[in-house]
Amino acid sequence: MKTVLITAYAVNPFKGSEDGTGWNIVKEIAQEFNVILITRKNNVPHLDRYFSGNDEVLKQRIQYHGFDLSDWILKIKKRSGTKGHVVYFYLWQKAIIGFLKKRSFEFAVSMSLNFHSDSHPHFLWKLNKPCLWGPIGHHPLIPRPFVLKGSGIKAYMIDRMFYQVKWLMRNANPAFKKAVRKSERIFVINSSIRAVINAPEWKTIKLPAVAAKKVADKKENSRESFNVLCAGRFHFMKGFDVALKSFLIFIEHLSPEDRRNSCITLVGSGPEKERLQNIARESRYANRVKWIEWVDHSDMDALYANSDVFLFPSHEGAGMVVPEAMSHGVPTLTFNNVGPGELVGIKELTVEYQDYESSTLDFATKLLELFLDRSELIRLKKRVKEKHAKSLTWAAKGAVIRNELNQII
Known about the structure:
With about 400 residues, the protein is α/β, with parallel strands linked by helices. Helices cover about 50% and strands about 15% of the residues.
């Protein structure tokens, strides 16, 4: 059995998001290969805990090691917030090469797994073995009206500044161009990334970094109720203002009885929460808006199971919650973009970018159509379950990666 060396900054069997992606992809690769996993030292106790009572076969196939920079650099990182994480991740990937050379690991191919960044290069090519990279991500510019109208000039300037910084990190750093050139394959989470990183088409493989486990079919909600769900971090990139405003337009068109049986639940927290709550309070239907600040990842299952529609007009390049909603057969309304729109991949569930008011009205119209046509809603539930089973499970992603590893080896 061949061995794959994997560097994964975040790996945790008990978490979702980046940590869950790291773990699930490592686990899938280990179905067919031995794995040498290098991760942060703070992830090692979680791996120890998992393997203390789970899966002896997998335990034999995954050899894991913790690596960090010196303590004084870690202290600076902790005090520096987000900027510190960005710099530390870059230095961690660069310094890990010396650690690997000293350990003299035997492996056939290497893989730089996460953080899904389109601006940080890896350096595994220095080990003189074939290497893979990704899945790496990219957040396109948020269309101007949806930042200015939604969150104002400050959010607009932040979005444009971060975009320019990432452009410079890709285009002014020779190490980034070398990582693109030296990687045998690059997994990209959406269709916009190949051009952004200037990689040849044959080298890039579209592979969304997000996935969710398959869940059992759920019992249909009663015709009287109509529950809309939104979840995520309340950040201007996520488009929660569009979601909330479109629901308030939708509910305006219902009869008093139907209004009493319809609601929107927003799960999450973040810098936009107060502004969103003000939007709800200023409407006549604040009592049809429910707020849940935080739930365990496992408790989200009950919320998905009780929802008729997942409303997610996000502008980001991915969307961790999208495959989770789809795994429960919940039709997911998104913009027709390279992020959530590509993940959903069903035209009837996407809205085109227009001006702010027109797109918000289009989401409201989609909600009303699904409310009025229960047979269409049921048909779309079936389609999203099929889409999820085909391409948005960890097993499906693992099969793609293992196939590329076999070809390269």
